[in-house]
Amino acid sequence: MFQNWDGDLLYFFxxxxxxxxxxxxxxxxxxxGNKGYLWIALGIILIIFNKTRxxxxxxxxxxxxxxxLNNFVLKTxxxxxxxxxxxxxxxxxxxxxxxxxxxxxxxxxxxxxAFVIFLRERGWLRWTALAMAILMAFSxxxxxxxxxxxxxxxxxxxxxxASGVVFLEKCISQKIKPTLNQKRNRKNSK
Length: 190
What we know:
mainly alpha; single chain; Vanadium-containing Chloroperoxidase, domain 2
């Protein structure tokens, strides 16, 4: 019953969004998420600038953890088939994908990366990153390789990992900063 509900939602979503121009756009955009290319590039760009260097580094750490947890642990344990393997009329915009369906790796890495930016940066950058992640998750439904719950679960996994990475960095920084300040003060008093 649950899979029918999930499949019906995917059918509905694909029906209301189908358009040849969107096909081209989403094929291109979802491909940027393959192997995390989009997020790796964004992380490297952030590392280049002093102001966002730590955010870029944390993004790459979160991306790596999201990828490893999702693709080597969760997908293996859950082993859910792709929608096109189960549902007869799913519109396939890209070719078949090797890995299993649940949770969406593209959504996990997108939100694992973008949510680091969302938590650490202000202004247009945080909202742009979030919009990029939402668009990546949306693209996986559009091209027909995931159920809505795959995308939702992947997004939640990414958000939790990003939140954990940012929280852990804050804890470590708070412990290290006083120690570094004490060393500087001792050095300056000599």
